[in-house]
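Ticket reopened. Same input as before:
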Amino acid sequence: MALALSDHSSIVTITPPPSRRRRFVVSKIGRIGGISLIATYLSIIVVIPVTALVLHGIGFGISTNGAGPALWRWSWHLSPMVFIHALQLPGAVHAIGLSLWLSLLVAFINCVMGLAIAWVLVRDEFPGKRILDGFIDLPFALPTIVAGVVFVFLYGPASPLHVDLFETWIGLMVALLFVTIPFSVRAVQPVLEHLDRADEEAALTLGAGPVRRYLTVVLPSLAPAALAGFGLAFARAIGEFGSIALISGGVARTTPGSAYVFMLTGSFQWAQAAAVSTALLLLSLVVLITSSVASRRISKRLGS
Amino acid sequence: MAILLNRVTKSYGSRRVVDDVTTSIDDGSLTVILGPSGSGKSTLLRLIAGLETLDSGTVAIDGQDVTFQDVRDRNIGFCFQHYAPFRHMTVAKNVGFGLKVRKQSRADIDRRVGELLEIVRLSDKANRYPSQLSGGERQRMALARALAIEPRVLLLDEPFGALDAQVRVELRSWLRDFHHRIPVTTIMVTHDQQEAMEVADQLIIMAEGAIQQTGDPRHIYASPSNEFVQGFLGPITNFGGVPVRPHDLEIRGANAPGEHAVVTAIQNFGFEVRVDLRTEHDTSCWVQLSTREAETLSLSVGDAVTVSVRHEPALMI
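Engineering reply: fixed in the latest deploy. New output:
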């Protein structure tokens, strides 16, 4: 009751009795309390660190002029040239570029493969299906540096399979595909599970073959989820460090953004590291926002 | 005979959903399969469409055995309970889907879609998306989509099941009228006996996977072949140990011939009045009266009356 009242408080013209009004006030306080709690938590965990990174990246700083704690003696300065200078460092643009195209490629491949894997896991029955389903989450569970060690062992110079991907972009790609596959599969799987089979049967009775049914009926319904999975996989790939740190070999040619940032911190170039990180963060945000906007537009049209 | 089913059987695991069904459906008729949920009526419809495969028996459409024919080649129009609209396509694209699959020219598709939308009264909604339509409009779109391919048979699975009561009543009479204009052989499945009685030329009553009775709905209503059919098609009451329709009983003054009884309750539903009675043999029964009959009798609880079976049982609803 209190909830309903607070929802329509502007429309309700009758004055609620005191007891109800008290409950209404209490619920409002409760809600404000809840929101503040969440806001505080998110600030500490996410907002403050990210803000600090970005401010640092664009050369924001605070200094005190003269002595004394008086607040008005503080001043701040912004030197965006730090950002531009950092991007002019040798290898910076290459590293960011490598991260960008590699992450796009990986997100795309896993988007396609994720759809295929989800399809098999949902629609087919075969022995060991449960186990395969469990394997999908493994990259979540495994520390990425462990995956990195395994990749260097398997696909490194001493590969028992005689596949040497050390210091190659393919090696990086394999590692990133591994790390991002859960995002792609788990994004579409639940949607596919709840898809109304009648849609496909309708297409079937109208004469559509399997390919047309998939492309014109199933895929459009999965598109919002697949796009969301693409965005998440891309964001994960562009931020990934552990699994690629070793196989990249520390060579400029195969050093993506995250490893480049790690190198900068190694030589105490904090401002430059923050600047490159900010650039990576921006790219991530652009792709995430674009994919989620596109995803929402499609879902809205589907009217689910 | 448009459709012939011969000893059609289908089981899911150990459960026989359709059990040895043999029947025929007339060309151009509007046949309703009526039964409670779990009676196998929807499965039977899906077997005719080819969406399920039979365990044994045969299905023939227009004299051609289609038992092992692929759904796509059966040329069947199927409407699903929840309409199964292609949600990312406009109404016009939905309706034209089957024609596009059949690789018809753009101009032909546009013309045919235009005609169909005219028939189902959705011309002004051609460029809308299904999510922008009401339930009744979606159902009409699904009907137009199924009809676009000029099917030999139109199959409707609980077509009005998900609609509001008022829209349902409207669409029923619309469907009757529609079938009159486009007399394609139609089979509709429903669990709603009123809907079935109103719409059907031919009625097939199913329970527990088997056909209970087939024929003209009025005939089945008047002379049901077993107690299940009688009870399922309409209310029954027990009079002198015999199940009868409550509107086939008559109430008259205490001195009239018949069984003596006392009025125990009266419920007025506006369009009809239900009178509960206790007879001289201490059994209870109830009588359904029209409001006018009830007014003429002007009964009240405690009145002594007589009950008897009407000489000419009233037919139909």
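The first helix of chain B runs from residue 41 to 49. The mean pLDDT of chain B is 91. Please confirm and we'll close it.
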